[in-house]
Amino acid sequence: RWFTMRVDRAYAYTDLALDSEGNPHICYTVVMGAGRDDLKYARLENNKWVPQTIAPASGINSYTCSIAVGPDGTPHVAFFHEKLPDDTILAQLRYAVLKDSEWLVRTLDFDRSTGKWNSLQVDSKGNPHIAYSSYDRGQAKYASWDGKNWTTSTISGRTPAVPQGMGNSLYLDAQGNEYMTYFDQLNLRLARRQGNLWTMENVATIADGAWQDWTAFRSHVTLDGKGVPHIVYEDGGAIKHAYREGDRWRIQLIVAAGSSTHRFSSFTRDLNDTLYIAYWDEISKSLLVAVGHSVAAATT
To answer: Which residue from 299, 291, 296, 286 is spatially nearest to 4, judged by alpha carbons?
Structure first.
């Protein structure tokens, strides 16, 4: 059975992560109006959800947030600070970490329109890694903390009239190598980091015009137990699954496009490499889950 609990009364974008004991942690943006959109965090304590506001009275924190929990149970959040309380536009990537019951918040990139799309992971040492977009500069970017300093780098830059970095997703493998998916206006791309080098490749071409709504950019990447990358992404209202087979990408259609481009999908796998895709179904107006199992390749 599925069980539901009310976390908060909110109109929100959400992200969820589990700690090492399987406890859920959620970040979410709340539309308050009057020049104020709050960023909030909630965790489950004694079977009750306990919400907190991160960076209260800071103005409008909107669009996306990402959450990850370190090995010691510390929650980390990346988010997009859109405006100050006086309506001054910031549009910057910010990062928050909970230390001694207080949220410590800092700006990671002071360029305009950075972090509208962001994805956060924490490594085995408890250090955060963030993939994010730099829309005005047309770049896909990456930031990481090594325990002493933050470093930022550009993964790929603008091609003529094509911004990059939207709908990004970040995954760390067991060796700490980073895998990042993101969109430009034409393609879904995969970047891989080994040591200090990033390599990029096109995974699939997306439908013409599918990029016109920021909510239509959603990708999710993970590696299975054999080290094979799996990517679930939205393409003009369709949901697709891409996976590597040898030196080529295989594309599976999971859900066909309909009248709406909004699917709000999410994706994960379990330890047996079973794949789970949750998405909004426009026909039944409900949340559905697609479950995928690997099968032996055909002999003919």
So the answer is: 286
CA distance 243 to 250: 5
Tokens of 168: 């990004």
CA angle (223, 188, 161) in 5-degree steps: 150
Joined together, the tokens standing for residue 129 give 């890694």
Count Cβ atoms within 10 A of the Cβ of residue 300 and give its class: 0-12 exposed, 13-18 middle, 19 or more buried: exposed
Q: Where are the extended beta strands (E) located within 146-264? A: 150-156, 164-172, 178-184, 187-194, 197-205, 219-223, 229-235, 238-245, 248-255
% of the chain exceeding 70 in pLDDT: 95
Could you tell me the pLDDT band of residue 118, with boundaries at 50, 70 and 90?
very high
Q: The whole model's pTM is what?
A: 0.93
Tell me which DSSP letter residue 131 carries: E
